[in-house]
Amino acid sequence: MDLKQSEIGLLIALDALLEAESVTAAAQVLGISQPAMSAQLARLRTLFNDPLLTASGRRLVPTARALEVRQPLRALLADLDLLVRESAQFDPATTDRTFRLIGTDYVHAVLSTELLKAFADTAPKARVALLPFDPPAVWPHLEQDGADLALATGMNLPEARRRPGLVEEFKVIQRKGHPRGDAPFTLDAFCAADHVLISPEGGGFFGAADKILADMGRVRRIACSLHSFLLAPALVSGSDLIALIPVRLAALHSDLIDAYDPPFPSPEFSVDLLWHPRRQKDPAHVWFRSLVARVAVAR
């Protein structure tokens, strides 16, 4: 069979089969009968001169040839889908599209509530998937359409398109009723306290604030290192430890902790919106990233 004589639907069927690894499940995804999907698989095997999927227990597993074509096929179908969508008008009020956003736990915590409210107001039929942040996987997800957008800090992705998202500063937090009292933090009081440090890589005991203190000839004692900002408010609220956490996150936990300006210029970090150039003119993507950017700036 020559590809020019076949239907584009065959390639869509192959993508569904490779994703589901099941004729029945792929048929359900495409809304056709199981015999019709089996017939399409037979035609695909002729087209590629390869079994493509072979039985392994109750599953169908891809052959080496199928694994070779899986990602190129996914990219080609994504480009074709984009070509169609770019020529059509996008209406957020009627779309049922799923939008996928990569971010750290902190990003999802401070943005998700307002983002979901914005979706409820403007795109009530759409869905949002909040995906975890795994640095090595960010670009493959964007490249292979596993995600629409990533919110990240300091990532070197030369091929990615980007725009500024949020810029964040820090507050010092302590538990309510802390024996230190509720006066603003002096440098002496800050350095005398036992601290929690958030080390995203895990296990670190030196951060941006420690560099600032070192330039001032001061040090602090870090009693505990955490891997996530989200863990700090609960730990601080139940102890006499203090911590530096982002302003937006401190505001979310004002019922548990009190927040103060640090006694030195606050460290800053920025979170950028990143996406694949393929999505630059996609009307749905333009709308989505504008919405995320607006929510990020507003927060």
Features:
3 domains; 299 residues; 11 helices; alpha/beta; five-stranded mixed β-sheet; single chain; 12 strands; D-Maltodextrin-Binding Protein, domain 2; 43% helix; Arc Repressor Mutant, subunit A
Summarize the structure.
The chain has 299 residues and is α/β, with parallel strands linked by helices. The chain has helices at residues 8-20, 23-30, 34-48, 64-86, 105-122, 135-143, 187-192, 208-215, 232-237, 247-252, 283-298, and strands spanning 53-56, 59-62, 98-102, 127-131, 149-152, 161-168, 170-175, 194-198, 221-226, 242-246, 257-260, 269-275.
Q: Your description of this structure?
A:
This protein has 299 residues and is α/β, with parallel strands linked by helices. It folds into three domains: 3-86, Winged helix-like DNA-binding domain superfamily/Winged helix DNA-binding domain (Arc Repressor Mutant, subunit A), CATH 1.10.10.10; 98-167 and 270-298, D-Maltodextrin-Binding Protein, domain 2 (3-Layer(aba) Sandwich); 170-267, Periplasmic binding protein-like II (D-Maltodextrin-Binding Protein, domain 2), CATH 3.40.190. It is 43% helix and 21% strand. The chain has eleven helices and twelve strands. The chain has helices at 8-20, 23-30, 34-48, 64-86, 105-122, 135-143, 187-192, 208-215, 232-237, 247-252, 283-298, and strands at residues 53-56, 59-62, 98-102, 127-131, 149-152, 161-168, 170-175, 194-198, 221-226, 242-246, 257-260, 269-275. Strand 3 (98-102), helix 5 (105-122) and strand 4 form a beta-alpha-beta unit. Helix 1 crosses helix 4, helix 2 (23-30) crosses helix 3 (34-48) and helix 5 (105-122) crosses helix 11 (283-298). The protein is elongated and about 75 Å long.
